[in-house]
Amino acid sequence: MTTTAERRIGVLRTMVRARAFEEGLGEEFAKQREHAKAAFGGRNSAFEDYNAEFHIPIQGNIELAIGQEATPAAMCAWLTPDDYAAGTHRSHALAIAKGVPIDRMLAEIYGRATGLAGGRGGDFMLNDPDSGFENSAIMAQLTAVALGHAFAHQRQRTGGVATVFIGDGASNQGVVHESMNLAALWKLPVVFVIEDNGYAISTRRKSSSAVEDLSARALPYGMPGSTTEDREVDRLISTAGEAVARARRGDGPSLLVSRTHRLRGAFEGDSQAYRPDGELEDEEASDALPAYGRLLVEEGLVDDSWIRDIRAGAEADFARALDFAESSPYPEPETAREGLFA
Ligand SMILES: Cc1ncc(C[n+]2csc(CCOP(=O)(O)OP(=O)(O)O)c2C)c(N)n1
Ligand SMILES: [Mg+2]
After folding, report:
1. Does ligand 1 lie within 6 Å of residue 90's CB atom?
2. What are the start-end ranges of the H helices in 2-161?
3. Is the CB of 168 under 6 A from ligand 1?
4. Could you report the per-residue pLDDT of 12-37, keeping only the tens digit for each?
5. pLDDT at 323 over 90
């Protein structure tokens, strides 16, 4: 599996762009919260009630993937829009890596009619069939849906694959295990990706799983499994490439575990009081993005000004997407019943 210079540069570009989006959104959210707090008597609370009560334009909770960009960027370097990628509640980086347009994504986060789900779903319904991406806030729900996509690719002999991203906490859900079993049995073209950031909100992986290395779960289901530290971006890229190639060949699923780092709270506004002293600093020191940038600069593949230009371009794109979202209308009340299936 060749990890060409072009592919590596593309992965760095995606990581920089995803980081810029997440930081931009985090700043907007913080501004809106401060504004609302000042306007409404200094009361504070972390979750959706707060947003509803104080009319924060960002709808609901925001859960950023800052620190976790390497894994989706590496995986999507091997995917086309015809391949399916299922994300979690922390999936902006995956959406960007998969090619979801950020203007419609931000419009959905702002609950606007121009959003990916017409403003009905918010951050947890960033469905974009054109780029082959969707996410859900129901932990691990899309694992079984990914199997359906893989089954369709297999039956129609398209050569397409389905990838599904799952958090370390969500990986304990029954549906993940049932899906791994069935995918291996039917040799479905699936890649299971566990983003192990060590926490499910405030619950440490160590308190929810007896297995330290979650890729150990691949073997009993009959598929290859591997664990990669996400700072080893090149290894992430080649492991992802092998798993995707295996799926495309018809040899069945793989499980990739990435040890990654959640550099923000479980949600914006999370005080992270549950983290031991110094842990966040250690996590920041393990941030894959600056390390990979330095590596590619050292190798002469890019230079610092290239990285700065990509970042500046991404910030300008974010600003444009924000204008689009903020100037878009809310859905008309009379359309409220559209898109319902029950
Ligand atoms: C089925 C289901 N159970 C519980 C929740 C509540 N919940 C939201 S985030 C979360 C933790 C997820 O942790 P992890 O899978 O490790 O993802 P991370 O937040 O670390 O990215 C939980 C339990 C949910 N959204 N869906
Ligand atoms: Mg986690």
Report:
1. yes
2. 5-39, 48-54, 70-76, 92-98, 102-109, 142-156
3. yes
4. 999 999 999 999 999 999 988 887 77
5. yes
